[in-house]
Design brief:
Layout: H1 2-26, E1 35-37, E2 39-41, E3 43-65, E4 71-76, E5 83-84, E6 89-94, H2 96-136, H3 145-184, E7 187-189, E8 194-199, E9 206-207, E10 220-235, E11 247-251, E12 260-271, E13 277-285, E14 296-313, E15 318-319, E16 324-330, E17 333-345, E18 348-353, E19 360-362, E20 375-377
Parallel strand pairs: 1-20
Antiparallel strand pairs: 2-19, 3-10, 3-14, 4-6, 4-9, 5-8, 6-7, 8-10, 10-13, 11-12, 11-14, 12-13, 14-18, 15-16, 16-17, 17-18
Length: 380
């Protein structure tokens, strides 16, 4: 009986060993054999594509309208949404104190002109006397020398009085022109063609300059919506090929499926330290006023490089949380090559690193393929 149990146990162990050998024989890779992987060649080409970037649309011109003088709002002919033309009268103010200042300035002018006339008359009289004495002095003994000298000095003093009176008249005239200029500020006209987007005040309100009494808020705000700025914050990695005049297209949520085209008009040439972007503006002529300022837009931003760069499938780039790399296959061995990623176009990503065009890399990279692993082409 013991012999039978011994024979049965030996048969069971032998059968298990045969099954294990069969599984090993049928496995896809025997220990020490190369791992089969799908490989692809590194490509070199010039980048010429577009990238979708967010942007904001702002009016080309926008101004808060404050009066230049303090007064009361008399009439206002516009409201939110009103369209205005450059030079159009939109607001009229009243300032009674300016009327008083004008009356005082006019009276001062009349007084100054009267003084000038009096000085001129005295000069003419004294100058005539001096000329008469000068002529009489040609006969010896007729005119005393002292009288002639006094007449000459009197004439010189009269000339000085006339010059002073003339300057006084000019000063008073300037003061009157100043008051007249202030009165012209009581009428406020539109600085450019646009639309009133904000109205804060109504007739009877006390208004004034932004820094003075009654200037806590603007009367109205006017925006030029016939011409818009499409402000695009371009990431610093994509600013190299930006040039003025280059065309770009954009879309807005209000018109799904429709695109608009505008040229690059202004480049800030300054990278924001916080966002690492550069402000670039498109100049869009909004003739039919369809696009509304303040909305967001998506810009198809042109990205071009004047020199070729290397591309690999996006799946060929992987990371182990410490480094980003591709797996190069060289002489049947896997090599990790550190890279930096650039732009992704149609499933291929731009890479920068110790690679050359035509070198083979693993198509579907993973950190499980360790450096030095024996590999051969044949996977999917």
């Amino acid at each position: 009986m013991r012999l039978l149990f011994a024979i049965f146990g030996f048969s069971f162990v032998l059968a298990g060993c045969n099954n294990q050998l069969a599984r090993i024989a049928n496995s896809p890779s025997m220990p020490g054999s190369p791992q089969q992987v799908a490989v692809v060649a590194v490509e070199s080409e010039k980048l010429d594509t577009t990238l979708s970037l967010p942007a904001q649309i702002t009016p080309y011109e926008v101004v808060d309208i404050y009066p230049k003088v303090t007064g009361f709002l008399d009439t206002i002919t516009v409201d939110r949404g009103s369209r205005v033309r450059a030079g159009e009268l939109i607001i009229r103010l009243s300032a009674p104190e300016l009327l008083a200042q004008r009356g005082q300035a006019e009276a001062n002018l009349q007084g100054a002109e009267a003084q000038l006339s009096s000085a001129k008359a005295k000069l003419a009289s004294d100058q005539g006397t001096y000329l008469h004495l000068t002529a009489a002095a040609q006969t010896p003994g007729v005119v005393a020398g002292n009288d002639l000298q006094v007449a000459e000095q009197t004439t010189a003093a009269d000339k000085a009085q006339v010059e002073a009176a003339l300057k006084n008249v000019q000063a008073v005239q300037n003061a009157l022109r100043g008051v007249t200029q202030l009165e012209s500020y009581l009428e406020i006209r539109a600085p450019f063609d646009g639309v009133v987007t904000l109205r804060n005040l109504h007739p009877g309100a006390l208004v004034g300059p932004a820094s003075g009494q009654g200037g806590t808020q603007p009367i109205v705000q006017i925006e030029n919506i016939g011409r818009l700025r499409v402000v695009v914050p371009v990431p610093e990695a994509y600013v190299g090929g930006v040039r003025e005049g280059q065309q770009a297209t954009f879309s807005v949520p209000a018109y799904p499926g429709r695109t608009f085209t505008a040229p690059i008009a202004r480049i800030s040439h300054d990278i924001n330290k916080d966002t690492r972007t550069m402000q670039v503006e498109l100049d869009f002529h909004n003739g039919d006023a369809q696009v509304t300022p303040g909305t967001f837009a998506n810009v198809e931003w042109p990205i071009q490089r004047a020199y070729p760069t290397l591309f690999v499938p996006t799946t060929a780039i992987t990371t182990d949380l410490q480094r980003t790399f591709v797996i190069r296959v060289r002489q049947g061995k896997a090599e990790w090559v550190d890279v930096k990623s650039g732009v992704t176009v149609n499933g291929k990503t731009e890479v920068f690193g110790d690679l050359k065009s035509g070198e083979m890399v693993v198509r579907n990279a993973t950190d499980s393929i360790r450096p030095g692993t024996a590999v051969e082409e044949g996977g999917k």
